[in-house]
Amino acid sequence: MDSPDPTTRTASRQQGRHAGLDRQRIAEAARTLEPQSLSIQAVADILGVDRKAVNYHVTNLSGLLELVAVDAFSMNFTDVDLSSTADWKEACRAYAFALHDSLMTTGALVSYFRFQDPGDFSMLGPADTVMQRLYDAGFNDEQVGNAIILIVNVAMSAARDDVMVGSDGTHPQVPLILDALRDAYPRQFPALQRSMSGTPSRAPYGPAQLDASMDIVTRGLESILLASQPALSAHS
């Protein structure tokens, strides 16, 4: 039996950097797969290249999942424009919701999201706008830095929780906590018992929860700003 023509093998499965791949093409191919079906080999098969060609740009499965998560996020977040939002509180709130909503598009891959491309300035613009509004309001460098990190953390945490909420609107951890409380003594953990008994009526996840979280954040920032203003006046 004749062996396959080496030229044919090379043409059918291009390798390494010579395959003409880039991270965008890999992301586009991966986008067509369900998260549970994602693998470097599956992406290579879609692109018609050797696995090594994909490995040249994405070294392992974790890196591929991060790439797909960032791709899903950036497709939505690139349209975010906060330049017309003048009030610092509204800018903070709008930025948090934009982050949250864009992260939600990553679905089950939300935990793999990382800010990984320093050349993607579209992801930095909204953050810069929010920070400028905080500076304009009178916050100092440390306060602005702390604020933007807090807002990002709140939005990312909310998105991760909301992705986990099932079709019935229930977070998988809530029934576990309720079961544990039912097994506890009646007078154990009174505050937790009281709070969890009201959980179904107060919608602890979703937009209402993020809105409540951002209300706490902005009120806290406002109190910091007001407390620092007398100190500034005393030195002027």
TrEMBL record:
SUPFAM superfamilies, per database record:
Tetracyclin repressor-like, C-terminal domain (SSF48498)
Biased composition (Polar residues) is annotated at 1-14
Residue segments, region Disordered: 1-22
Q: What is this protein called?
A: Tetracycline repressor TetR C-terminal domain-containing protein
Origin organism is Microbacterium panaciterrae
